[in-house]
Amino acid sequence: MTKARLLRLSVVLVSIFMILLIIVYWDNVGTAHFYLHTSFSRPHSSGAIPGITAGEDWEALPDVDEFLAKLLSSNLKQNSSISRKTEQLLVQGSSKPVVSNLEENVRGYDWSTHNAQNSLDQEKLQIERQRTLREFCANSSFTFPTKERSFDDIPNYELNHLIVDDRHGIIYCYVPKVACTNWKRVMIVLSESLLDQGVPYRNPLDIPREHVHNTSTHLTFNKFWRRYGKFSRHLMKIKLKKYTKFLFVRDPFVRLISAFRSKFELENEEFYRRFAIPMLKLYSNHTNLPTSVSEAFGAGLKVSFSDFIQYLLDPRTEKMAPFNEHWRQVYRLCHPCQIDYDFIGKLETLDEDAAYLLQLLKVDRLLRFPPSYRNRTASSWEDDWFAKIPLAWRQQLYKLYEADFVLFGYPKPENLLKD
């Protein structure tokens, strides 16, 4: 009799425990996260650019999946409703945001007006960019490292550039030196992930740079494992399937010039110690270098562009550690052959692309994209910067970044690759 009571008591306790576990999990992960459908790259019709209208035009799903998909749609619509309630507050203030950061005051902004009815047909432009990307991803004769692996094969630490905004159903893959500071600011405002005296930031330019690049500020895919455990990949695939995914790219060689100017022509303690000192020792034969960047600059010891190119081409560089994100290839940062991006923006058409994207995301009434820098590195500078770089190095450098040129439709710089 006692054994029977103990058995019944054990069953009751286990049942209570399981119920509590389910309640806690449901509260923490959300109903939508029980949807374990693994397909994440739905095909888009060639005649339209997908927005974030969750729940519309989704392909036929099994009954349970359809039910959970509707829950996710309902959640997104609820968040959208909340956003509309705060819309009037967010659009208050001057049309020219106050710039509080000293560096940005020095660099200056381009406040020139841009005609919204620009000559670019944005919808056709997006179709063409996506078509180019998908064709070369499917082209077996065009190969590059990691192209053939699946999304499941990508390690978590390589997913740290995918920022998620669950409030509006958006995923942004940021590429350093491609307006990523301001796009991160936009994501912070939309997701309300950072508060200023208890109130979410309303103006992207009010957010200090040190907070923008703080990894704790953003929810990124590589954090899913700690939060969701074994369900993390399933949740990533759900969000990749349902959310609008975008990235911005740039001419690969111009991006390298911009990275060099930013990290080695300005005093940057971290980059001096991690990268400049080894470069100066290996490629300029300097010894007994100063320990601080200010001392080095005072003594006229700076990394040259030639040193930087040698560093990129040196096979020892990748053996020691992967490329720093500021010069790592876009295909390694954003995995464009594994993730079906809905929008591909370019820095060369930043103002037009940004305005169009915010309209597609239905957030253009909440905020405006911050203005461009006046001194943005120009494509026309390539000839001058590469003039003293040997032809063989330029050709090797192109092979190193060829996938970024081809996938995103940048023309091969023939003038730099021939005598």
TrEMBL record:
It holds the Pfam family Sulfotransfer_2. It comes from the Eukaryota. The chain crosses the membrane at residues 7-26. GO terms for molecular function: sulfotransferase activity. It is found in: Golgi apparatus membrane. InterPro entries: Carb_sulfotrans_8-10, Sulfotransferase. Keywords: Carbohydrate metabolism, Glycoprotein, Golgi apparatus, Membrane, Signal-anchor, Transferase, Transmembrane, Transmembrane helix. Its EC number is 2.8.2.-. One of its GO terms (biological process) is carbohydrate biosynthetic process. Signal peptide: none annotated. GO terms for cellular component: Golgi membrane. It is a single-pass type II membrane protein. Belongs to the sulfotransferase 2 family. This is Carbohydrate sulfotransferase. The gene is Chst12.
